[in-house]
User: Fold this.
Amino acid sequence: MTTTSQQHVHRIERRLHTAWRVRAAAGPAPEAVGGSAIPATVPGVVHLDLMREGLIPDPYLDDNESAVAWVGLVDWTYETTFELPASDRAAASVHELVFDGLDTVATVLLNGTVVAEVANQHRVHRIDVTAVLQDGVNELVVAFRSPLKYAAAQSAALGARPGPYAMPFDAMRKSACSFGWDWGIATYTSGIWRPVRLDSWSTARFDEVLVRATPDGEGGSVEAVVRVQRAAGAAGAGAELHLDLEVGGVRAAVDLPAGSDEAVVRVELDRVERWWPIGYGDPVLHDVHVRLGVEGWVLDETARRVGFRELEWNTTPDADGTPFQLVVNGQPVFVKGVNWIPDDAFPSRVGRTRYRARLEQAASAGLNLIRVWGGGIYEADDFYDLADEMGLLTWQDFLFACSAYSEEEPLRSEVAAEARDNIVRLAHHASLALLTGNNENLWGYEDWDWKLALDGKTWGAYYYHELFPGLVAELAPQVPYTPGSPFSPNGAHPNAEAHGTMHVWDLWNQKDWPHYRDLEPRFVAEFGWQGPPAWSTLTRAISDDPLTPASPGMIVHQKAIDGNAKLTAGLVRHFRVPNDMETWHWAMQLNQANAISCALDHYRSHWPKTAGAVVWQLNDCWPVTSWAAIDGDGHAKPLLHAIRTAFAPRVVTIQPRGDGLAAIFGNDTGDAWSGEVVFERRGFDGSVIARAAASVDVAPRASGTVPIPAEVAEATDAGGELLTASIGEVRGLWWFVEPRDSALKAADLVVKSTGSGDDGIAVTVTAEDSVVRDLTLLVDKLDVRASVESGLVTLLPGESWTFLVRGVDALDLDAVRDPRVLRSANQLVAG
Assistant:
């Protein structure tokens, strides 16, 4: 129920989340399921209710995905009753049912009367039920149709269109990946997946509230653009309304004359602090309150948190093509990004706590931007609120992915409604850096033989080039927009290396990962390499005996086309393929991390020409072999450590330049970085074979390059030497040959605990007599609650590294020393 410190609020919201039941209405439900209704949790989906009642197994385990596929072929009906006293019904002149999310095609009935037919998961459904609401007990029914059957029927009616999979996810407005993806389980969910309420009001209420914060020198302004919905009759249309805006104790107000339903009110502030992305300053937020009143009574009110920042993407052509460079408050920002998919295949299970955990993992890895991919969902408000608070920039795709989409009805109107809903909901967020029309559809139209298959049919161009930019210009002119990702701003091929954003997938699909160094894109919005989930996640989800890379459960949990073959092809040039499963698991995780390290070091070394790199992908939605850095159980894979190292505020990497090697210094801090860089070519026993030094001076937020003298950069024993470039505590490495061809010895390590405290348990590991490459603790094998803040550490003989282990109160050091826990690349090379 809405509350306020003022006299009274004429708007009352009642959550309708209790006493729901669900039953199979039609379709191939087993007899045990089809007999009667079961308790249902709202918000939620039917799979979770069936699991809770023991009627289906967990689809995340083994091959249960196929065992529960029938759920998507069933029509499900949700039912509840709620009581509304006569006095409460009489207290308001308008009563509306509001569903924040229905998944997806449903008939809504109140007291036996059909009040709505809906077919869009991604929008709010607001239904006037004043005429059918009754005093006392009311019966509410939501009858869902099978999403699989509906999608098939719509595909036939609209005309089949080209896409990546046989499933016609593009024929309805439902999360594309709920039909399965190359990392995702097919769920075909149905349910009331977001909150539902009865909204009762009189005279008028807010319909849309758009809040925009604009900096101006040391000050700024906050503007609220408001649209109101008036009740019918003189009490609504004839009322003179009052609109009040308050920011930081400063207030402004305007009146809405009778009959008017739009107004703008602005507050001017003499001094404001700017909002900055993480790593560039503090993400300062300001509270905004907007109230609608009549004759001293508050009819409606809402609140926002805004940040004052100027943000643009520089796409002015230059000598190298067309950049895509983020500029915040006049400061160019190297984008350290990652792609985001729904964090659970049943998104209603993801709340603020889980969002926070995942975004904190992202921030801990040095990331400053999260791209919400277009085949998932518009995430809940908590996601964007937390991003604002943490200074994590967000890039939001409209929900179109890898497929051609009909521009005809009924999709056309649904797309317009969902786009408007979500632009209005998200536009005020300081973190929102970009809205994008689709994922890969512009590229698909050009390169994936769509034109022949479409044979003149529409494919979505109207949405990306007309509808969305028009709505953004109207509702959120402060938010940049691009028609797609990838996209070239100047009309070049959408995935052109020299222009705009690029997706790099030919390496994973066709080439070895060192070929990342062949490209110098202006901005990389997607690229990735696969690896299995954490060992504890894998063995929890798959009960194969024996467990092998190709055992039945492993194949079910590998969704990529020829995924295992590509894993092997991507490994064998670097390491021999291990025979035992646990070592295979480590080798594939390590190779994934090494692949992305190679790419990130290369891309960052070309800043500012390459203005950003967005890794595919941060997270998983279930236990699966995938491109993710964090698996479906929330465990960080070694890849997250690789990202953290590559995206550190200051880095040194060694890169090929011309006929030799050079040290590249990346300084993503606000201070200049000066000092002596020392180049050393060492044997694996630690001996210095050649040495040189040079001075380096790197400006703030810049890169510097120092060629490495040939006498240091050229190996005499390539298999037994490595090259280092060090400035202070920051060091870059270069290996002259692949690990499989090197003379790495078995790691001789000393492990001891160096104390514990509130921050965790410190475990110090020392290399004795030989170099240790990519040392990592797989702590989930000790305790699924455990995490470690660093990994993939290379130690020269005599060097130590302290790992901080969190989440547990004690550690058995003998268990830590277990070579299945204390892992290194040496284990994959030494005999």
